[in-house]
Amino acid sequence: MDQRTDNELLQAYRAGESRALEELIRRHHDDLMRFLIRLTGDRASAEDVFQDTFLQVHISADVFDASRRFKPWLFTIAANKARDLLRRNARRRAFDLDSPVSKSSSSGDATTFMDLMQVRVDQPSDAVSSAERDSMVQGVISNLPVSLREVLLLAYFQKMSYNQIADALDIPLGTVKSRLHAAVAAFARKWQVISKGQTSS
Fold first, then answer.
1. Closest C-alpha to 190, from 152, 141, 149
2. Mean per-residue pLDDT, 82-102
3. What secondary structure, in 3-state letters, does 34-47 show?
4. Residue 44: which of 91, 77, 76, 11 has the closest Cα?
5. pTM of the model
6. Angstrom distance (rounded) from CA 138 to CA 36
């Protein structure tokens, strides 16, 4: 396994080492695919955006600011590419992501947004119940406006601070806070409705 940092790999790619980009793709594949599946709503779109993202990395490698971290830059490109795709297809959260969105009636344990956002990549043997819940979670997220969805997913998957999200999306800090609050609150409301429906059925 290549022990070089992301930035070192990108520098090596700039210098003509093609395998360095392959290592970056391998290293970030699962995290980026989880993010993109949630953001776009389906795996096929996520795969398209994933490819477009690394094509952009290839194109922009020479202008990357080596004083910045590679991963936030990568996710920013991916978010922009996903937004473009969603816009083309015309398809249509200051808040603690550990906040409970519903409570289990049997155990009393709270289900948090963090619990629900788990996505497994390439796990076809998952139990049906896990697949059903994943589908329910995706349904809720897909019904959020893209502006709320991307802020929420950058905060969750990339663990970006408010300032980092504001910089990545080129929006004011206050807008990040209000969108994140609105997104998690909307998710919680919709999830409670779905959960009650599942419990009663």
1. 141
2. 66
3. HHHHHHHCCHHHHH
4. 91
5. 0.66
6. 11
Is-contact 79 168, C-beta < 8 A?
Answer: yes
Per the listing, tokens 């603690």 go with 96
CA 23 vs CA 13, 62, 165, 188: distances in Å: 10, 18, 26, 38
Domains belonging to the chain, first-starting first, are 6-89 (1.10.1740.10), 100-200 (1.10.10.10)
Question: What's the average model confidence in pLDDT over 130-154?
Answer: 87
CB atoms within 10 A of CB 71: 18
CA dist 121 and 108 (Å) reads: 30
Interior angle at CA 108, CA 104 and CA 110, nearest 5: 65
Contact 114, 189 (CB under 8 A): no
Tokens of 97: 């992501």
Which residues have a Cβ under 8 Å from the Cβ of 174 and sit 6 or more positions away? none
CB atoms inside a 10 Å sphere around CB 141? 23
Cβ-contact 101, 113 below 8 angstroms: yes
Q: What is the residue whose two structure tokens read 């959960």?
A: 195
Confidence of residue 121 (pLDDT cuts 50, 70, 90): low
d(CA 78, CA 169) in angstroms, rounded, equals 11
Task: Find, among 76, 64, 71, 77, the residue nearest to 11 by Cα.
Answer: 64
Q: Which span out of 22-26, 41-45, 188-192 was modeled with the highest average pLDDT?
A: 22-26
95 forms beta bridges with none
